[in-house]
Design goal:
Length: 116
C-alpha cells in the first residue's frame, strides 16, 4: 500500500490477520503506521459532493463533510445528501446538515450561494 499521510509516499508492507494489522514496515514517519492501521481496521473518507439548489445563482451547491466518515457509510450518506435541497442563501462554511447520519460530521457548504 502507498501511504498518503505525508508527501514522502512511502510504500508500506502490511501484514494482517484479516481485520487488524499484525505487521508493518516501510514507513519513514509515525504517520505511516497510523495511516496503515486506519486503512486496514476502520477506513474513513471525507465526503465531497454537491446538493441541489433552487432559486439560487447556482443549480448545485458544493459541500463536504466536516470530518471523515466510515468508508462503508459513503453510499448511505450520498443517499441522504440527495434528499437535501437548498432554497435560502448560504455562506461558505455554513452547516447545511448537522450530524449527517449520526456519524458526528456535519455537511458544510464550500462556497457561498445567493438568491437569483
Amino acid at each position: 500500500m502507498t501511504c498518503i499521510a505525508c508527501p514522502q509516499g512511502c510504500f508500506l508492507e502490511v501484514e494482517t490477520d484479516g481485520t487488524s494489522v499484525i505487521g508493518l514496515s516501510g514507513h519513514k514517519c509515525s504517520r505511516g503506521a497510523v495511516y496503515a492501521r486506519q486503512e486496514i481496521e476502520a477506513p474513513v473518507r471525507t465526503l465531497t459532493t454537491s446538493v441541489l439548489a433552487r432559486g439560487m445563482d447556482l443549480k448545485m451547491l458544493p459541500v463536504r463533510t466536516s470530518g471523515p466518515i466510515p468508508k462503508g457509510k459513503l453510499a448511505e450518506a450520498m443517499d441522504a445528501v440527495k434528499r437535501i435541497t437548498i432554497t435560502s442563501p448560504v455562506k461558505a462554511g455554513a452547516v447545511v446538515a448537522t450530524d449527517l447520519l449520526g456519524l458526528g460530521a456535519d455537511l458544510i457548504a464550500t462556497r457561498s450561494l445567493n438568491k437569483l
